[in-house]
Amino acid sequence: AIPHLGLFISLVGSLGAGVLALVIPTMMHFMLFKDSMSAPAKMRAYVIMAFGILGSAAGTFVSIKDIVNAMT
Q: How many CB atoms lie under 10 A from the CB of residue 49?
């Protein structure tokens, strides 16, 4: 048995979920259509990417904090 498997899965999920769901698709769309996008559409893309990055960072921080608390 692996101790604290749920905490490790939480860490992997927090690292990957926000990036896979929000950042990568938005970045790909932005890179493909940036020449034809309006300024508000570009701003919306930046906000979505920032939200994904911040969410992933916050989830990663909490997951690492939980792992450290479980190990001590």
A: 19
Residues 6+ apart with CB under 8 A from 45: 26, 27, 29, 30, 37
List, for residues 21-68, the tens digit of each pLDDT value.
999 999 999 999 999 999 999 999 999 999 999 999 999 999 999 999
Alpha-carbon gap, residue 36 to 62, rounded angstroms: 39
Q: 4 in helix, strand or coil?
A: coil
Scored b (16 or more CB within 10 A) or e, 1-39 reads eeeeeebeebbeebeeebbeebbeebeeebeeeeeeeee
Say what the pTM is: 0.87
Q: Hey, what amino acid is at 64?
A: I
